[in-house]
Amino acid sequence: MTRRKKTGHHRSGDPRKTGGDIAGPGGPHDRNSVIIDTTNAVLLDNSNVCLVETANGSVAMAMLLEGRINKTTDRARNLYLLNGDGAAAIITELLALAHRIGPEFGDRLMARITHLLDTDAFTGQQGDQS
User: Fold this and answer.
1) How far apart are CA 92 and CA 90, in angstroms?
2) pLDDT tens column, 3-24
């Protein structure tokens, strides 16, 4: 039997309850050319990642994202499985967007990433020590 923390919030793992959309005539590099529908968008407030070994022995990444569903008290918690291509796509899209916001924003983000790498804040470990 699973024990649930009594927070007064319903936790949804059903991705059909989440939503939001990006639509419009413009492309990803155009300013003010898309419409954002925030209906049932998830306001991300927690993320966790881990290494996964698949049934065939290959390695993948798992990313658990959770947050409150916009304009509700419900929470969403969904696990995404990624390979290297999926992870690289997310990372590069976020970095590109940061630099399109403006050089100062991009520079602050890169400085923060550099700081986290330099202080081993990501894992507390340096690569394979064998």
Assistant:
1) 6
2) 445 555 555 556 557 888 888 8
C-alpha–C-alpha distance, residues 10 and 24, integer Å: 33
75 touches 67 (CB < 8 A): yes
Task: Determine the Cα–Cα distance for residues 110 and 31; give it in Å rounded to an integer.
Answer: 22
- The mean per-residue pLDDT over the stretch 41-64 comes to 94
Q: Which two tokens stand for residue 40?
A: 């049932």
Whether 81 shows a pLDDT value over 90: the answer reads: yes
- DSSP assignments along 16-69, one per residue: GG---EEESSS-TT-TT--EEE-TT-EEEEEEEEEEEE-TTS-EEEEEEEEEEE
Q: Which of 63, 18, 67 is nearest to 41 (CA)?
A: 18
For 91-107, the pLDDT digits (tens) are: 999 999 998 899 999 99
What are the Cα distances from residue 118, in Å, to 5, 79, 107, 130?
36, 29, 16, 20
> What is the 8-class DSSP label of residue 125?
S
Name the token pair of 18: 């989440």
